[in-house]
Amino acid sequence: MAQFHPLTVTDIHHTIRDAVVLTLKPENPEIFDFKQGQYLTFKRDFDGTELRRNYSICAGLDDGVLRVGIKRVDGGAFSTFANTNLKVGDTLQAMPPSGTFFTELEPDQAKSYLGFAGGSGITPVLSILKTVLAREPRATFTLVYANRAVNTIMFREELEDLKNRYMGRLTIIHVLESGQDMELFTGRVDQEKCENLFKHWIDVTSVTTAFICGPEPMMLAIADSLKTHGLEPDQIKFELFTESQQGRLAKQALAARAADQAGTEAQVTVEGVTRTFTMPKDQSILEAALDNALDAPFACKAGVCSTCKARVLEGEYEMLSNHALEDYEVEQGLVLTCQCYPLSDKIVVEYDTH
Ligand SMILES: Cc1cc2nc3c(=O)[nH]c(=O)nc-3n(C[C@H](O)[C@H](O)[C@H](O)COP(=O)(O)OP(=O)(O)OC[C@H]3O[C@@H](n4cnc5c(N)ncnc54)[C@H](O)[C@@H]3O)c2cc1C
Ligand code: FES
């Protein structure tokens, strides 16, 4: 599960000045079959430290290629490497596609999708919109795409081409911090902006599913507004890119946990290998599994990506942060092991969740 596979970089395209779109060729294509909206976890050694980073697939299912878009973050290790050092012909190591930022395709249904993307948050939304427009012939898609200025819009030309190709089915609303004539399309996408968009341009009552990917405050404001306009929580799908800081409460909870000297007997299974060991109550299940030589999968270690997902079969636990699992998954006992700490004296965890 935590296995990495080689991908050859076959093309590097600069969509804007500080973002690249990489086309990747797997040695074994079946391993990289993906669902629209999923991401890849890459690993790379930087001066002796292994970093793992997630990048969403921006290709649609019918594009016939594997593609990711990487925006350079100031001082960011992997994104700067990808934007400045990576060359065609280089090899990257990635895990098979993962993530649940999609809904099942239903070609007979006339669905109405609404997508919100901020900056590089367009990548999974682009994959979704290309796929649903091609595979669900009666579907429509409205995209609200927030950027600082025109020259920071990733995939601008591709989006224009798609708009022409799917005339009447794809609507794109660009909201820019500056450089727009109409006030409605200028500024940040906050609750007030949503209210105005929903009043004048978007009929939320007809929306089947909304996909939101962007900075966390923007996502929360949009979700609140959608709920106010009648959307149910299960009609709203999120993908969060940035790691949130662990809150004060989480840190307090961990400090209290450190005082509990008893430890927990943990039984953890990864890819059929089971180990039993004693772990402290202030250590995450993921760190304990890695410390005990289990090849447990992970990427962000911040409760954002769901790569470290596992099922708790026995025992009590607390998950300090969860930006990736849906409520129904949590109800089924699924946890993000990087955020999951044992409460009981025994805990049984299985990583093979399928
Ligand atoms: C599920 C998922 C999918 C993702 N898909 C994409 C994608 O398709 N395209 C893409 O460009 N990125 C994507 N990301 C973000 C990506 O994984 C990295 O977090 C980002 O590229 C920064 O990594 P880095 O090694 O360059 O920076 P780091 O060296 O980790 O960080 C450097 C500094 O930048 C800050 N920082 C970290 N991440 C961000 C960010 N995203 N925005 C602003 N500041 C940040 C950090 O706090 C730190 O101060 C995704 C993240 C997740 C969890
Ligand atoms: S490693 Fe990303 S949620 Fe745990």
Automatic annotation (TrEMBL):
InterPro entries per the UniProt record, alphabetical: 2Fe-2S_ferredoxin-type, 2Fe2S_fd_BS, Cbr1-like_FAD-bd_dom, FAD-bd_FR_type, MRET, OxRdtase_FAD/NAD-bd
GO function term, MF aspect, one: flavin adenine dinucleotide binding
Metal-binding keyword on record: yes
Keyword Protease found: no
Domain FAD-binding FR-type: 2-104
Database matches in Pfam families: FAD_binding_6 (PF00970), Fer2 (PF00111), NAD_binding_1 (PF00175)
CDD domains in the cross-refs: fer2, PA_degradation_oxidoreductase_like
Cofactor: FAD
Domain 2Fe-2S ferredoxin-type: 264-354
Alphabetic keyword roster: 2Fe-2S, FAD, Flavoprotein, Iron, Iron-sulfur, Metal-binding, Oxidoreductase
Name listed for the protein in its UniProt record: Ferredoxin--NADP reductase
